[in-house]
Write a structure and sequence with these properties.
This protein is α/β, with parallel strands linked by helices. α4 crosses α12, α8 runs parallel beside α9 and α14 packs across α15. Strands 4-10-9-8-7-5-6 form a seven-stranded mixed sheet, with helices on both faces. It binds pyridoxal-5'-phosphate. The site of pyridoxal-5'-phosphate has 15 residues, from α5. Belongs to the class-III pyridoxal-phosphate-dependent aminotransferase family. Keywords: Aminotransferase, Pyridoxal phosphate, Transferase. One of its GO terms (molecular function) is transaminase activity.
């Protein structure tokens, strides 16, 4: 609900004149015609003109339990009435302590130490800083390079952004490039003609091991990987990739950070995808987004007992991990996260995701037959269509770069909002989506792709 009523033209002027949006295209700043989402219910959002749209990306991969959940809103309000804030530095609070415990019960292996952050970027940043801290305490100050991958996205703070391998995001901002090494694309779709998936997998694992050997294991601190590269275009590495990469890391004393900012909290039918879906227990997991179903900001960097033991007590050299935020473990966010966990569990949402995923994946796979679609890929409730000028030739480059936006516009006219990324559209609907709503979503998407195809010829 808006504080004051204002006509839509005025609100759009405020937005254009005063609000700098994330990834703001500076050529068009102040002249945008954005869709205003003003309300939400279940899997739907409503716009300023009263249209009801299926929210294909669940906000920004985050609104797991759907919109308009009054139970979570009430839990936040109750916490705000009782204690809106406290300082997490020298004090503690039972809501955030309980949340740390509830999260630790759901993480793989010995990942039991939860460092709360304000979102995904600060979770990744904290993970990276913790590893720097660990190596300094262990007397390994040279062991600082982090290996990441092309197409990865890890956030927008300086260190996290430096680990992000999307070409477009690296263009105009400085990076801590002395701390990074990027591996080539792990997308099987771009493998050499005639190369088998098995050979591609071997090559990608060898890329990691060779990078460690060439850089020197004494200089490489960690490997950071999203289980699925989401913002990079829902890239699903070949089966077995993460497990084999973890083995490589273990051989060379390189830590493994699994960035589950998108895949955590149910997106793949489990609390965390690392162990249940990809069969790995990493050293650190980062999460955010679905943790509170996006109702309020929160993130976490979850560290293994083993790593904490290495740098604590007698081994600590009296060091302080001087990284933290005013809002670490914010009680209102913690109350939202606790209620979110309760709802996901009580409503059987993880089981529901596992039940509807085969249907989602089947409808997604069928889109690959459309002429404009080069690849239709995904896993869990994560999907992407990548458009090419000529699907038989997989000619990505020849295509109009706004094709994703064209598809999104046609879909919006028909009740579905997507996230366009250059020649791709990605989607990750609220986890409560039913099978018939999945059909509705894919019917509109197929229409949007066909309509865009006819616009282009
Ligand atoms: N890590 C991954 C894998 C992400 O997808 C994102 C955001 O999309 C982030 C980190 C950054 O999260 P935030 O935008 O909450 O800072």
């Amino acid at each position: 609900m808006t504080q004051q009523t204002a006509d839509f033209e005025t609100v759009r002027d405020w937005d254009n004149g005063n609000f700098v949006h994330p990834w703001e295209g500076m050529a068009g700043i102040g002249r945008n015609d954005r869709t205003f989402t003003e309300g939400g219910e279940g899997i739907y959002v409503s716009t300023q003109t009263g249209e009801r749209l299926i929210d294909g990306p669940a906000g920004m991969w985050c609104v797991q339990i759907g919109y308009g959940n009054t139970e979570i809103a009430e839990a936040m309000a109750q916490q705000a009435r009782e204690l809106a804030y406290f300082s997490p530095f020298n004090n503690a609070n039972s809501t955030s302590a309980r949340l740390a415990h509830e999260i630790a019960k759901r993480t793989p292996g010995d990942l039991n130490h939860v460092f709360f952050t304000t979102g995904g970027s600060t979770a990744v940043d904290s993970a990276l800083r913790f590893i720097q801290f660990r190596n300094n305490v262990l007397g390994l100050p040279e062991k600082k390079i982090v290996i990441s991958r092309q197409k990865a996205y890890h956030g927008s703070t300086y260190l996290a952004a430096s680990m992000s391998g999307k070409e477009r995001d690296q263009g105009w901002l400085d990076q801590a490039s002395h701390l990074t090494h990027f591996l080539p694309n792990v997308n099987p779709y771009v493998r050499a003609e005639g190369q088998s998936i098995e050979a591609f997998l071997d090559e990608k694992v060898a890329d990691l091991e060779n990078a460690i050997l060439q850089t020197g294991a004494d200089k490489v601190a960690a490997f950071i990987a999203e289980p699925i590269l989401c913002s990079g275009g829902v890239i699903v590495p070949p089966a077995g990739y993460h497990k084999r990469c973890l083995e490589v890391c273990r051989r060379h004393d390189v830590l493994y950070i699994s960035d589950e900012v998108v895949t955590g909290f149910g997106r793949m039918g489990h609390w965390f995808a690392s162990e249940e879906v990809f069969d790995i227990v990493p050293d650190i997991i980062t999460c955010a987004k679905g943790m509170t179903s996006g109702y309020v900001p929160m993130g976490a960097c979850i560290i293994s007992d083993r790593l904490i033991a290495e740098v604590s007590g007698d081994k600590s050299r009296d060091a302080t991990f001087s990284n933290g935020f005013t809002y670490s473990g914010h009680p209102v966010s913690a109350a939202a996260a606790l209620k979110n966990i309760e709802i996901i569990e009580r409503e059987g949402i993880l089981e529901h995701v596992r039940d509807v995923t085969p249907h989602f994946e089947a409808r997604l796979g069928a889109l690959a037959d459309l002429p404009l679609v080069g690849d239709a890929r995904g896993k869990g409730l994560l999907g992407c269509v990548e458009c090419v000028a000529d699907a038989s030739a997989d000619d990505v480059l020849a295509l109009d770069k706004t094709v994703g936006a064209m598809i999104d516009a046609h879909c919006q006219e028909n009740g579905l909002i997507l996230r366009p990324i250059i020649n791709m559209c990605v989607f990750s609907p609220p986890l409560i989506i039913s099978e018939s709503q999945i059909d509705q979503m894919f019917d509109i998407l197929e229409y949007g792709i066909r309509k865009t195809t006819s616009d282009l010829v």
